[in-house]
User: Fold these one by one.
Assistant:
Number 1:
Amino acid sequence: MSDLNKLTIAEARDALAAGKTTAVELTEACLGAIEASSALNAFVHGTADKARDMAKAADARIKAGEATAMTGIPVGIKDVFCVKGVPSQAASKILDGFVPEYESTVTQNLWNAGAVMLGKLNQDEFAMGSTNEASCYGPAVNPWQGADGQKLTPGGSSGGSAAAVAADLCLGATGTDTGGSIRQPAAFTGTVGLRPTYGRVSRWGVIAYASSLDQAGPMTKTVRDAAIMLGAMASVDPQDSTSADLPVPDYESLLTGDIRGKKIGIPREYRIDGMPDDIAALWDKGADMLRDAGAEIVDISLPHTKYALPAYYVIAPAEASSNLARYDGVRYGRRAKLGQGDGIVEMYEKTRAEGFGPEVQRRIMIGTYVLSAGFYDAYYNRARKVRALIKRDFDNAYADGIDAVLAPTTPSAAFPLGAMDQTDPVQMYLQDVFTVTLNLAGLPGVSVPVGQDKQGLPLGLQLIGRPFEEGELLNQAMVLEQAAGFVAKPDRWW
């Protein structure tokens, strides 16, 4: 078989089971593609030797009849996941040299299922950003090109994961979604990104940004692949008190393609001023596709949506300022060179000033400010109350019989690297306008590529589901995926 790296997870699983290829051959195809794609800067720590050993073990497992759906499947791991014996620094200078002596629960679940690790993937530093430009490794690059060969952002923070999947460097990848960091890059690269319900996937061993919002999920080429990969990643975890003690369904078996009678809500508050015609037309088209498949399309109101973005950018930095206080140069990671007479205070100051990039420093400062004694009630407590109201909006919609909400994933297609003014963070934060609501509410959401803009760049729509009903959500997403028939791939330039 040729072009093995272009297979989907489902196709590769079936080929492995039928003896048409081996995990070693599949892995070598991906390693070759990675080596030929350094211009994308998607992989930042290679693990080729480890991948070959894991592939051999997977082939032995398949031969013994002990394979699962992920056995022998080569995947990339976002740098925010701790992997034992592999550099894991969340794309930050402050964790330079950090090699964990333990394994995150998500990656351990994948290895238990027989998946093969190709390497660590680029991201925004500590998962803070929407363009992958806040990375100590430099930005990942979108495989899709803009006008006149412009290099585009793959989105963030899981930009490296999205670029790697879109460019067929791996069959699937892990990502994390705190305010849209799986779904937005998926929309920018024409891939599928699933953010599960908060608690569905363990956060243990995932380097924290905002603990009440972070959630790991799969980034794949198809909805079916997302269902397969989520089944391997999800589990209850005694090491994570927020993980849900619920059985993990066979998500793939729930992909029936039947959504007759389902009610899909269209929130009027998401029709923001200045929405591009391409996005608005695609949204209407997506609603028509679901209607044609037998779903009922219902206009709904989520009245507190307009407060979501400011509430998110109070809560997330507040939690970040607390989580990132542990990086001080004392126990692990980077320590600044000290001058004669420097004490522990100078060590903290110099280490954090050198180790944290501008975006991380900005969010730490914002978070420290909103948690300070004089402003705690005015900002943080008020944001928490708004968060509760946003969650109640969704609860009310679902109580009225709505099965899922359909909305755009992003307010635009991918834009050129450097287009966002880094001195105006609000411009970048507005990229999260459609995605942050479900993070605040703890709900599952999936972005599906549905069409292209006037330049031929991919555009995505997202479905927001009921809590812990990822199976239903993925089934609805598969219907949308099949109706859209999005098969476009980026022209290879890299």
Note: The first strand starts at residue 43 and ends at 46.
Number 2:
Amino acid sequence: MRGRRYIYELIAVAGALLFFCSCQRHDIYVSPDGDDSADGTIENPYRTIAKAITEIRPGETIYLREGTYKPTAEEAMGGTLHGLYLCVYMLDASGSEFRPLTISGYEDEKVTIDLSGVVPENQRVSGFQLSGDYWRLRKFDIVGIQVTQTGHTQSENITLTGSNCIIERVNMHDGMGIGLYAKSGRGNLVLNCDAYNNYDPVSENGKGGNCDGFGFHLSDPQCTGNVIRGCRAWRNSDDGFDLINNLAEVEIDSCWSWQNGYDSNMTARADGSGFKMGGYGLRKMAVNPVPPMNVVKNSIAWENKNVGFYSNHHLGGIRFENNRSGRNNYNYNFVNQIAHNDNTDVGGYGHVIKNNVSYRGARGEYTMIDPSQCTVEGNTFLPDMALTDSSFVSVDPALLYSQRQKDGSLPDIDFLRLRQE
């Protein structure tokens, strides 16, 4: 009996040790000065992010050490959509709720991924093709993404089609592509990210019409639970935030959008809406979609080329709550399309418009609304309030550029905040 019991105890100990080892995180380290033939430890890091991605397992983190990573087209991980895109980094594995897959800058080190060397012939570029679930991307910048095609095309710093992912403190700027572009996926959070100075001078005669800061264009009504929070978009040549052709509700909370529709030199380019909150292109549609009630709240739009907050011919209501808008062409445009099979514009219907501030729109504070078909409460318009600079704690737009807090959250500013609030 003692022998058998001893064997059972050994088996139990071995099983416990095996479980313990399998649960240990083996974090992976990458450095621009590393070597892909190394072991990926902090002492001997890999050189390329692609190498680390092929090694990562659920529950592990790829830590990027300080410096600039500049992949080439030859180092790109693959293509997708019948070769339409060249994907620099393919994140097609999946983690789980308690064992996500993470790529993060290391501690407070400055990490930049420069995609300017990825110049494929006749392909779009996707910096991070994020099709897996439960990924976390944190604390790095992406710059320099390229466009090589001259027709109707686009490149994307992050292409999101997975679910339950968090993109946090990732800044996408000074390139030719969209910051973040989502076509599908559920339960994703885009948190405390910046997208700015993005302009495509190559395609469509340099119009720049496919360079939004953040775009959610969800193709399935089941793609619910997506949130953009604490993000900023400025001087993107098209729109700051764009939800056109979106079939599932997206919430935009505490985001700022200014001077979109211009390039980094403030030369006028494409559409230039701060928050484009829905719509389907003002066209006749054979099938009647169920339009989602997208939400934008606690947000700021300033000096965008077109509209600050825009319903964009939506086929239903949108929630506009606790927003501040100033010096846009129109600060608010609530226009709706009358029906899916009739592309006639009418005054906005079904909207919930509460506690919004409007100040000095170039053409007007608001336009295109049927108040009898909307919930309108507590705004500085409908009825209009007489506002001056002294009505606000601050009207200094330089505050929008203020440094983020240490945890990455937005700075606490009083720009366009009414004094009585």
Note: The longest helix spans residues 2-23.
Number 3:
Amino acid sequence: MTENVTKKFLYVNRKAPYGTIYALESLEVVLIGAAFEQDVSVAFIDDGVYQLKKDQSTDGIGMKNFSPTYNALGDYEVTQIYVDKESLDERGLTADDLMNLVYEDEDDDYAEKSSISIVNRDELAKLMEQQDVVLSF
């Protein structure tokens, strides 16, 4: 009898949300992985931090704004979202500039909790070491 072992997947987002297909493709892969009950976490570094910036508008570039889809991550039990503090600092952003992504904690009477953790680069490196699979977009 084989034991079903869940692998830990970390999706690393490095690119700005628009101008390439990377951000949208990553989001789709994360949602698919979560739908298949993988242990999914997501990290945003470099220009990837712009993917979580609130109040995005794509009116001037003629592309569909897919940023509201990030709000569905909690429904897919993607509750571990890491944002690199140094990347935020380098771009003049703070946690207040990011979308409010939440999930309902079943173990705490379904209390709504933030999915986003601001981490430094050393903490992010340790998180990467703990993963079975790291995919970079």
Note: Helices lie at 22-35, 85-90, 121-129.
Number 4:
Amino acid sequence: MSFVDREFIYFLLVFALLWHFTRGRYELKIPGMLAMSLLFYGFHRWWLVLLIGAYCIADWAAALAIERTRHKKLALLAGLTFNLGVLAAWKYTPLLIVTINSLTGWKVPGTEAIDGWFIPMGISFYGFSGIAYMVDVYRGVVKAEPNLVRFSLFTTFFPHLVAGPILRAKEFLTHLNPGELPSRPEAPLEGTFLIARGLFKKLVLADSIAIAIDPFFADVSGAATAGVWSLPYVYLYALQIYFDFSGYTDIARGLGLWFGFRWPDNFNWPYLASSVQDFWRRWHMTLSRFLRDYLYIPLGGSKFGALRTLTALMVTMLLGGLWHGASWSFMIWGGLHGLFLCINYLWAKTLLSASLARLKGVSAAIWTTVSIVLTFHAVCFAWIFFRLTSLADIGNCIRKLYEFDADKLFVGGSADVPVWTLLTGYAIATALAVALSRAKPLPEAIPQFERVAFARGAAWGVSAGLLVLTAALHHVGHAPPFIYFQF
């Protein structure tokens, strides 16, 4: 099930009633929330419940073994092997078969099944949550959870299940204990606004962009796009993936707040980053911290000299790219970001970088603007390898960045006036919201509005208006799945 499925409205209503009427009945609420979350995950494919159930049992048992036995490393290795082994089998079998076929000319048995291969939704996300949990137990950061039902709810709770944020035990699991389980919403207004904003981002902005640009990317090497300038399409894809993924995160965090849980944000104005390092502090932040804490730092981080640091950066980003999917283009995408981070690391050690960092006033503003523009274009260039999996298509898209007909600068979807109007309107509304909130983060701005009756009513009105506007503007029919559902 997805947040944008019509069935989700009925599911959410039933879940909310169950959550409300089991207040004070801990022994009923936890199993009830777990059962509903499993229904959410297995709604279209019931056997997925068996898969995620196996993850829950394996991670729970491995963590208990890590805490209670002398062979902690062996128990951790067993848990990691299960998580990564199952993940690799589901995600990378098609890539392995295709690669073997292309390199050897053999036809590996089962090749014909690749076209219909299905990757379970969210397997990368709950797999990484389990890995973080087991490693944290091994490091002594958290205690192993003795209750299987409680741990299973931590893994499967429906708002964050399919596409994150990637939660750690201290951010969710410890709040499921008796006496700590929330009995009322954490921040109803903030949660409602996040849900409304997330639905608008997904159903209006991201899906409208998709309709405009999908034909170009589907035929980027064909006659229909001959001579077309690809740059505006790359820009639009960068916006699409941001609105799509951040929209999901908004909805997930809003639902969490509705049911009493505050989770970390995943995005912080990523396209205003002044370096690629800064970009990864702002984009998919829970994945970034996972890669930092459980891969980059164990590989040596920045403690053992420049060569070790550069190696750790490149390996981390290559694996981070491969995590996204079974295609070599994802690894190239990760490698590009690894290369950008290495260049950023070396640049930061130069005298020129230090001099520019000391600029003030107008000069500093100009250099910051230049840095943001350069970073944005580096990120957009890498998105080409994320959007397209065929190397031939990637090559043609890159070629069309600088080889195009003058009369085809903006044609087709890139000249879709309603799309640009929506984006402009959203930019203006966002700028006004930032000004009214004095650029405060949402958890600080909302309480400020709630203290004044008029402002509180206006904030609720904006949230309701966004929902109505989304219903009015979104394209009728089945909404396409969130982009990150495939990961």
Note: The chain is about 65% helix and 0% strand.
